[in-house]
Every structure is written in structure tokens, then in C-alpha cells.
Amino acid sequence: MSLQTSIELRNLSLAYPNKALLSDVSLHVECGVLTSLQGRNGTGKSTLLRCIAGLVKPTHGDVLINNQSIFHLKPLDRSHLIGALWTDKVRLPGITLRDLVWMGTYNARKSATQIALSKTTDECIEALNLESLAKQPLDQLSDGELQKAMIARALAQKPLFLLLDEPTTYLDYIAKEELMSTLRTICEKNGPGILFTSHDLDIISKHAQHKLELKNGAIYPIG
Amino acid sequence: MSTLGLVVLQLGTGSVAISPLSIWNSLLRNDLAQQTHLTILWDSRIPRTLAGILAGAALAWSGMLMQTLFRNPLAGPSMLGISSGASLGVALLVLGGGSALGSDMPAFIGIATAAFIGAFTLLACVLLVANRFANESTLLIFGIMLTFFTSALVDALQSRSGNEALRSYVTWGMGSFGECNYAEIALLACGIAISLVVSYSILPRLNLMLLGENYASSMGVDVKKTRVAVMIATGLLAGCVTAFCGPISFIGLAVPHISRWLTQSADHRKNVITTLWLGAIVALGCDWISRLTALPLNTIASALGAPFVVMLVIQWKRFRPLI
Questions:
Q1: CA separation, residue A152 to residues A126, A130, A175 (Å)
Q2: Chain B residue closest to A52 (CA)?
Q3: Structurally, how many domains does chain B consist of?
Q4: How many domains does chain A have?
Q5: Which residues of B touch A147 (CB under 8 A)?
Q6: Which residue numbers of A have CB closer than 8 Å to B's CBs?
Q7: Do B212 and A86 touch (CB under 8 A)?
Q8: What is the average per-residue pLDDT within B3-17?
Q9: CATH code assigned at B79
């Protein structure tokens, strides 16, 4: 994985039907760095993440990874570049935590062996310290455990970047600290670049290596 | 064993009772088989049983696909306007064209063809606009609105039709496995086989679709293509059944829930066989009761299905997580 890889927002403008969210923003988010994005409710943090993931088209501009427009890629190709945690509620009873993380390897089913996919699954479960819960059905997990399982699933895609929309929601203070330390370790081990949104300024100031704020349609670096 | 038991009951009971041994002899067409039994079984009860098994399995699996596509426990094969399209096709033939055909009732094959054309015309409309919609909820609303619109057209045709044509239409609407011939059963089997091949090819994607469109898409699933594949598979299943057996309610809605409840899992890999098998059993059971009581199939399916849906709503917490 190249450390030079970055997400490039090029003159990006985003808008709801009656509200401009971003206007003409250019920005680089580096691989291997834990980057935070803060901002008040309704400023468009989640929409920006969805745009970077290729799920929402901008009104103007482009999102480039390795000089490829994310909007010109097929979902399968995009999934090798971007993995994501959304705020959408997930209910999959009867499916174990390991099954869920295994789902993350969907994008490699045609190119990797079952053994390799199993190894990736187990490594991602281990990376999030979820080994003891691997066989637990999802409906028996706490919200915090499910949140970590969903991150492990995104990691199993082996993406260049992880977009995490409020990853510390549902977690208690100790779990938040553990998760952010784990994410930083994953980043630093030549792992994916992580862009996460949060309202927890304490967590951001303590763990983020690069801090951004979304305000009045523009993105500002902090600190 | 339960399926075998129901098949024996279905084949052996009726105006002429046939023992399991006589059924066996008749199936083998050996010298011990009585001509009366051969005629009853091969001309009436065997095609009816086969139609019940195939239609039940098809409706149940199409219900499972619809509930996954819409992530809605109350979705069923009728949600995309397939059943109402079939109804409109038949209504146009029987109620609209009935007068043009004179007093003769249209042949059943004519009704099946009209239902088939109606179902697939509406499915084609839905497919044409499906990918314009941002999400499944909008598609669901479109499907339901289309159903209302076609129902309005059917109502208008009913209000202006004669008693004979109206009776013919209502009879078709009650649903029956007893009108299928072997050619129609073969067509039904082909439709199911194609749908199952399509379903098998998208099986890994179906579980990802349960996570929601945003997750499925960011994990590499082409949501639009998967949506179209699910609709084609469902259209074939529900379209064929509605065309040959009439609009049969509740099996498609209720059976997927029973399957998930039995497997205690939303995983499609665990539910394929169970859903098909349960669909066949429920359809055979309803048809058997329908024959015993001389009540229409849809009356029995609804009479058994409605309390199930009521239980579903009352015990929402227990069932809700299973989709």
C-alpha cells in the first residue's frame, strides 16, 4: 500500500435541494493517517462521507483516489478503495459476528482463496479484539460490540481508506479510548487512511493526527 | 415426511378415496392399478398436487426475495404490482373482452395468457423506472401505487360487466391449483428453475442487501443490478403462479417469516431450502383443506394467513428482528 495514496477532493460542491453544504472545496486526505472531521449537526459531514464513497454525486467537482474519479468506478472496484461505517441501523439476527466480518471479504471472493478470505476475516476480528465474540449472533451483541464488528467488516474489505461516520457512538468512555487507540494502531501499521466524523472533541484532540472542521460550506484544518 | 404425508393425503382423499397402496400402484401404472384410480390420479390429483408444490415453493421464495429487497417484513410478491398486473390482464380479457367473445367463457389458457401478459407488462413498467429511484422505499411506494391504479381499472371494468363475465373473473381471483394441465406445470417448473438460477447467482449479495443499500454498495454490490435481478426472479415466480393458478395471497408473505423463525436466521443460504419446502407444504395443506371444505383456495389461505399476520404484528418484537 502506497503512503502517497490520498483522497483528493477537487473543487467539490455539494448541496441539498435548498441548502448548499460544500462549495468549491479542494482537499487531500492522506493514507496511513487518522483524520477527524468535526462540525455542527446539519453541516453535511455524513453527506460528504457518502460523496467520498461514491454514493452521493456532487453538484460540481470530483473525488479522486489514485487519480481515478470515484464516480466512474463500479461498486466492486470502489470497495477496494473505500470501506465505510455508516450510521444506518443494522439488524441481522442469526448471523454470527464472524459471518458479518466474512461478508466484508465479498469484494475478494473471485480473486482470493477461501483460506485467504478466512485468514483476512480472523485478522480483522483480532484487530478489533473481538475474538471472544466471533461465534455470537449479532442480535446478542451490545450496540458497542456491533459497532466494532461493523468496523471489522469494513476492514475486511482491505480498502485504502476507511470512512467512519461517528464510530464512537454507543461506546462508553473506556471502549471509545480502546477503539480509537486500535484505529490509530491500524493506521500506523501501514494500514488504510481513516477519516472519521465525531462530535467528541476530547477523542478528536487526543487521537486524531489530522483534524478538519466543516463550517459554512468550507473545510478548515484545526491545530 | 410431512411433505410425503401431505402428498398422500392430497392424492388419496376426495370424492373417491384411494388407499396409499393403490396410489403406489397407480403411480407405477402396474397391473394392480384400477383404471378409475389411474384416471382420477393422473388427470386430476397429480397435476393439482404438482401445481400446489411448485406454486407454494415459488410464492414463498418470491416473498423472501421481496422482503429482502425492501427490507420490509410485510413485503410480498404482490408488492411490485405483479399480481394486480395479472388481475388487470384477466379483467381486460374476461370483463372487457368478454362481450366481444360473445356469451362463451374464454378458455382457461386464454386467462393464463392474459394474466401472464398483464403481470409482465407491469413488471416491465416497474423495471423501466426502478433505477430512477434513489432507494427501495420509493420503489415500494411506486409498486403499491401501481397496484391501486390497476385495481381502480379492474373495479371500473367490473362495474360495467355482465354477471357471467363477472363470475368467471371472480372464480379466477379465488385461486386454484386444480386448473393446471401438465404443459402449464412444465412452464411453471421452467419459470421456477430460471428464477432459482438467478437467485443462486445473487445469493451472496442478498445477505449484503439486508445491511441496507449504503452498506451493500460500499461493500461492492451493484445495488441497481441486484435490484433488477431480484425483480426478474420475483416476476417470473409470481407471474407464472398468478397466470396459471390465480392470485394466491398470504403464502408469499407468511412463509418466509416461518422459515426464518425455524432457522432462527436471516441468512439466505440457510433459508433457501426451508422456504421452498415450507411453501410447498403450506400450499398443499391449504389446497387439501380447500378441497375438504369445498371453499376457495384463497379463502383458506387468507383465513389461515390473516391470523398469522395478526400474530406477527402483536408479537412484533419477537418477529421484527428476523428480517
A1: 9, 9, 15
A2: B218
A3: 1
A4: 1
A5: none
A6: 50, 53-55, 74-76, 78-80, 82-84, 86, 88, 90-95, 99, 103-104, 106-107, 109, 139, 153-154, 157
A7: yes
A8: 85
A9: 1.10.3470.10
Q: What is the pLDDT of residues A155-186, one digit of tens each?
A: 999 999 999 999 998 888 888 999 999 999 98
Most distant CA pair in chain B, distance: 64
CATH number, position A69: 3.40.50.300
Does residue A1 form part of some domain? no
Q: What pLDDT sits at residue B17?
A: 86
What pLDDT score was predicted for residue B267?
86
Task: Name chain A contacts of B222, Cβ cutoff 8 Å.
Answer: 74-76
A47 vs B contacts (CB less than 8 Å): none
Cell numbers found for residue A210: 489530522
d(CA B281, CA B251): 10
pLDDT in tens, B51-108: 999 999 999 999 999 888 888 777 777 777 778 888 888 888 888 765 444 445 445 5
- What confidence score (pLDDT) does residue B316 get? 54
Q: With an 8 Å Cβ cutoff, are A107 and B219 in contact?
A: yes
- Is A77 part of a structural domain of the chain? yes
Do the domain assignments include residue A137?
Answer: yes
Judge: A88–B266 Cβ closer than 8 Å, yes or no: no
Q: Note the pLDDT tens digit of each residue in B120-162.
A: 888 788 777 776 776 777 878 888 888 889 989 988 988 888 8
Least confident of A120-124, B280-284, B318-322: B318-322
Asked if B237 and B59 count as a contact pair (C-beta separation under 8 A), the reply is yes
Distance from CA of A178 to the nearest CA of B (A): 24
Residue A74 lies in a domain: yes
Q: Do A93 and B321 touch (CB under 8 A)?
A: yes
**What is the widest separation between alpha-carbon atoms in chain A?**
50
The answer to whether the Cβ–Cβ distance between B220 and A91 falls below 8 Å is no
A55, A79, A91 member nearest B214 (Cβ): A55
Question: Which domain does A10 fall in, by range?
Answer: 6-222
CA dihedral for B168, B170, B171, B177, sign (positive or negative): positive
Q: How far apart are the first and last CA of chain A?
A: 28
B15's CB contacts (< 8 A; 6+ apart) are none
Considering chain B, what percentage of its residues have pLDDT values greater than 70?
Answer: 91
Which DSSP string corresponds to B98-111? TTTTTTSPPPHHHH
Q: Under an 8 A CB cutoff, do A106 and B212 touch? A: no
A113 DSSP 8-state letter: -
Domain with B302, as residue range(s), is 2-322
Question: Could you give the ipTM of this predicted complex?
Answer: 0.92
pLDDT band at B313 (very low <50, low <70, confident <90, very high): low
Nearest CB to A107: which of B210, B220, B322?
B220
